[in-house]
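Protocol step 4 of 6: structure prediction from sequence.
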Amino acid sequence: MNIRFEQPDDIEKIRKVNLEAFETDTEANLVDVLRNTGIELISLLAEEKGEVIGHILFSPVAIDGDYRVKIMGLAPMAVLPSWQRKGVGTQLVIQGLEACEKAGYEFVVVLGHPDYYPRFGFVPSVAYGIKSEYDVPPEVFMVKELKKDVLNDIKGIVKYHQVFNEV
């Protein structure tokens, strides 16, 4: 399996993965709309023998208040059903977090399964006084530091790009 950054020729294949991995087209549409906003994204795909089998997207998020930190939100991550539970998602998350760190992002948030993301170092964000703009249980909105101790003095509500509320 190879993990690499998205290229223009991959767009339709990535859309197909998102359509097959989720019950609706919401995530596939979200990826397309975010890509068209022109904001800085980290978009990685997993491929096996030339076939795109997984995709992960990170997009910038903001925290209310006067903080000048670079934050990414992980969403969505998709793996073809026939490739799920085979380590594809794990590799996408690991390499995606590394790419975020290399790009200078200081922490990452995710709204995801509380039994899956802690293996990568994510913890409930409420431990730091950070909440999601969405009304979700506290254990499903998590944060991971990429820069040591950056969360010590940060509190507030994380806001996603406006397209998350429009798609």
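Step 5 (inspection) to follow. The chain has three helices and nine strands.
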